[in-house]
Specification:
The chain has a single domain, classed as Aminopeptidase (3-Layer(aba) Sandwich), CATH 3.40.630.30. Helix content is 26%, strand content 36%. It contains four helices and seven strands; from the N terminus they run E-H-H-E-E-E-H-E-H-E-E. Strands 1-2-3-4-5-7-6 form a seven-stranded mixed sheet, sandwiched between helices. A hairpin with a 6-residue loop joins strand 6 and strand 7. The longest helix has 15 residues. It is globular and about 40 Å long.
Length: 153
């Protein structure tokens, strides 16, 4: 990891104005404001990553009956390539495990080899694909569904 030392805290609905620009900058097809705002409440386990006191990334996940789905993970482009995505993913895994998660699920664009490599290095494996899930028209892309079904240290 770089010299940047991230800190983490729960992501609150009141953080929306800080995270929405990150969502817009980091994703090819960003979530809408309404979609992001719908992901707060008792079943959600969301986290915010701060670097030098500034919001640098976040994750949105849910936790139901021991299963946690990572629905969105995002690092501002300014902070990408510095190991912070891995730090954010590890924070999510540890925090969700501490809240009772026993299995983890996510989906990722098939063309996002960097993210797939990160997930695989943290114990996730592909279990199926959704054909032509992302994009429109000729620019369609599969979704790779991945899971991690074992404990970690």
């Amino acid at each position: 990891m770089s010299d940047l030392l991230p800190s983490f805290r729960p992501l609150l609905e009141s953080d929306f104005n800080a995270i929405y620009p990150i969502e817009q900058a980091a994703h090819q097809e960003p979530w809408s404001q309404a979609n992001l705002l719908s992901c707060f409440g008792p079943r959600y386990l969301n986290g915010l990553m701060l670097v030098e006191g500034r919001p640098a990334g976040f994750y949105i996940s849910d936790l139901v009956a021991g299963d946690s789905s990572l629905m969105n993970i995002c690092v501002h482009p300014e902070f990408q390539g510095k190991g912070l995505g891995r730090a954010l993913l590890k924070e999510y895994l540890a925090r969700s495990k501490g809240k009772g998660a026993e299995a983890w699920f996510l989906e990722v664009r098939a063309g996002n080899r960097t993210a797939i490599g990160l997930y695989e290095s943290e114990g996730f494996a592909e279990y199926c694909r959704r054909a032509d899930y992302y994009g429109t028209g000729q620019d369609r892309e599969d979704a790779v569904l991945m899971s991690r079904l074992f404990d970690f240290g």
